[in-house]
Amino acid sequence: MRKFFGKGKQKDTAPQSDRPSSNKSRSGGRQRQPHQHKAWDLSRFDVPAVAGKSRFHDLGLGLELMHAIADLGFEYCSPIQAEVLPFTLDGYDAIGKAQTGTGKTAAFLITVITDLLNNPQEERYIGEPRALVIAPTRELVAQIAEDSRKLCKYAGLETALLIGGVDYNRQLKKIEDKVVDIVVATPGRLLDFSRRGHLHLNMVEVLVIDEADRMLDMGFIPQVKQVIAKTPPKRNRQTLLFSATFNQDVLNLCTQWTTNATMVEIEPDSVAVDTVDQKVYMVSAREKFPLLRNLLQQDEVESAIVFANRRDTTRRVYEKLKRAGLSCGMLSGEVSQHLRTRTLDSFKKGDINILVATDVAGRGIHVDNISHVVNYDLPEDPEDYVHRIGRTGRAGKTGTSITFAGEMDSFLLPELEKLLGKKLACEHPPAELLPVH
Description:
This protein is of the alpha/beta class.
């Protein structure tokens, strides 16, 4: 039996279809009084008004949330935050086209946290979250959960992380020990908890679906549909959906899952591409690894992610770099979740300065000081290129991306240039980085 936290009121047992609409308004949602936060005030977070920039100060956010935003050093909204938050904070559904690294995670978390703070619930049950975030990969889910905890630092809201590859009972204990407000999960593990009766989604007020296009690519949409069927009808919840691409399949899902949604598009060429120096080196197959090894040993390479298309290539490159004496780790689907988490933590702390990764494993990497991204293989999907190079050039810094193009994959360049809207200059690598023949 689930534990009850409240003031002794009878829980509403009416079926979902008979429940009244959500108590959050779809207009004027920011006019509610925020919780009091007496130990801190906005005078301690002075951000001057700048023409053409939107401040978080101007959004009517609660002091608990603003305190956390100040701790994180967020002063001005990113383009997607500036465009989407005025609508989502008022309770509207939203569909966002944006790459990783645009600030979309903070945009939907600020929306979620504001909604929960502005609409406190006295009746709470164990295993009944009020907000649900679904994302396709374990690393991305872990990063979202970490960001959520940072933004909830002063809000008194609890975030739970549910991913596969981690002991089920350990995750269950965290859900059963306290009332959880926000659940961030991969679809499969979320369904496990729901089917076993340990998690109940019928009280979800805000649903976030992140990287919908990647969900499609990975075959997760049937699972996501099962999850959504367990939440209240779309008219009784707020739904936020984000995707790097808007193909017809994604647009069909948007129609199914949202109501009168505001659509916001942030194009790739206005993302991290502007802060990244992009190089394309024409190389033969036998030159690739020696070039990579020599490149990573350059003084200017402070930290780097090397992307490969296949797991076996990832492992081969990783093992050869280790043998060459470089400090590196590997992230791919064949690595256990525990080891992936440990490797990513080591990278963030600077214990290792090189990661070799596949695209799926690389999606959740949010580290601000990555100096270089190397595409050991040209990605088959041009969108993946933008995701990859978005790992560098973050947080106002510049970065460098170096792509190896050879006889087997250079035919992919025209589609990539079409997406970027510009030509990529192809050059031979510096002679000093090539092996001596």
